[in-house]
UniProtKB/TrEMBL annotation:
Span of domain HAT C-terminal dimerisation: 195-254
SUPFAM superfamilies per record: Ribonuclease H-like
Coiled-coil annotated residue ranges, if any: none
Protein name: HAT C-terminal dimerisation domain-containing protein
Membrane-spanning residues: none
InterPro entries: AtLOH3-like, HATC_C_dom, RNaseH-like_sf
Domain of life where this protein originates: Eukaryota
Amino acid sequence: MFNATRSVLEKIAIDSQQSYAQRGDAKSALKKLLSFDFVFILHLMEDIMGFTDGLCRALQHKSQDILNAMHLVVGTKSLIQKLRDDGWELLLQKVHSFCNKHDQQLQELNSRFSEQTTELLTLSASLSPIDGYKHFDVENICRLAEKYYPQDFSENEISHLKYQLELFYCDVPKHPDMKNLSTITALCRSLVENRKSDVYPLVDRLIQLILTLPVSTATSERAFSAMKIVKTSLRNKMEDDFLSDYLLVYIEKEIAGKFEIKSIIDDFYSMKPRRTRVK
């Protein structure tokens, strides 16, 4: 329940379709949710409600057994008193364990999905054609180009991009071959097939840049994962060039596995004269 609530608040906090007030409320609620005080009260209430649950259920019965009800009252009071006298240390251990667990998860999420990366992916979604271009947002798309691709668009092109997007939104969603698309990849392909890429060259350029994101992200993830395996304590002195070549072969091992040893040896000898031969 805690993870689900946090996930919903995080999505609302970065959702560009929400109002500033809603995003602000979500960020404020998320900050309180992740605070130590909130977690402590949450665990305390869980213990207290766990102790009193049996008594509450018994008192809701239409026909009351007074004797058993009194026994439940006495037992419940005893458990709460025990929690008050001897349960604080165990409670604090639970709270610290909970905080450490979720803090580590949060750090891992932040390292993999930083605020900048999350914003980049969120803005990119504004070009998605799914549900009849429901999420299409001209301001977000222009912000994407201006903030994350300043080397690919000049100031003049950024200015023209807005008008091109306005015209794009009036035209493309009504086109019979382009109104039911579901992915940005399909949109890019359809733009070329219907020669719309010539009509909206800036939009087509931005879409192609967006489509490089999954590749670059996956390659980076694979490279860092491979680094942990390749550069062990026994190989910690290898030079950068050798490490780079080693990683390339490891990361692309599926492709490297298709090369024949004979062809590799031939290429090795063709590079320069060798003193000895291995074949």
